[in-house]
């Protein structure tokens, strides 16, 4: 479950974490409505004909339910911890979706990761998915430091070994610096993440630039993303990213590259600043949950 397809980024380069590319590109599959939030996975409105992807990791041995801290050894980085929220209904015999939650810029970084987990916890418990919140390595509290991608990959691998994760339903969400970084990770790993969401994030703050200086251009990054990974954007109308730094143009960047508003692109411009709310997280989950990766 290693992240692999990586791109040059605004503040440096993500190192390669190499595994062979898939022989067959992944596809985006829309799930039966009854699967969100955890209804009958077989029947939707009494009759269901769609194929539901299933790729269980088969992991076991992890503690549950509730807040869990796990410690891992990351090659080239050292010993790291990450945080999980496992829902009360978790059963090792049934594979669960997982959402990778990337905190905003914060010091100490561990507190930011714990806060991201806390903010997602009510939705985890109600909807039945697992949240994984990594800490990161930046001394400035952001993302993109050496070792960050290795740490995230190792945490995902460890979670899949300790819990039964539905690998066709791994999602990503990020806030602020985590949203900037999340754009880059998700768009470079569209055969790993089924869908993703960003709160108070901007493509041009990390993942790409319209001018291509530094590369890549947003047009090339988005144009090359296959499949067109579903994305939810939540942005405040008084957020400086919206008013001054071009984030308000992100929906158009996506639609120019083939995304369809209301189908695989969701955009919420709300009254407020550089924030998110727990209610926003519920809206985001409602837009991510219906998607899975198929062969």
Write a structural description:
A hairpin with a 3-residue loop joins strand 4 (66-74) and strand 5 (78-86). It contains seven helices and twelve strands. Mean pLDDT is 90; it is low at 5-24 and 38-47. The strands form three sheets. The chain has an eight-stranded mixed β-sheet, sandwiched between helices. A two-stranded antiparallel ribbon has the order 1-2. The protein has a domain at 8-192 and 276-294: Rossmann fold, CATH 3.40.50. The chain has helices spanning 109-127, 148-162, 177-187, 218-223, 240-243, 250-256, 278-288; strands spanning 8-9, 12-13, 27-30, 66-74, 78-86, 96-102, 130-134, 165-175, 195-199, 231-236, 265-270, 291-294. It is α/β, with parallel strands linked by helices.
Labels describing this entry:
295 residues; Rossmann fold; two-stranded antiparallel ribbon; 12 strands; AB_hydrolase_fold; hydrolase activity; hydrolase; Plant_Biomass_Hydrol_Est
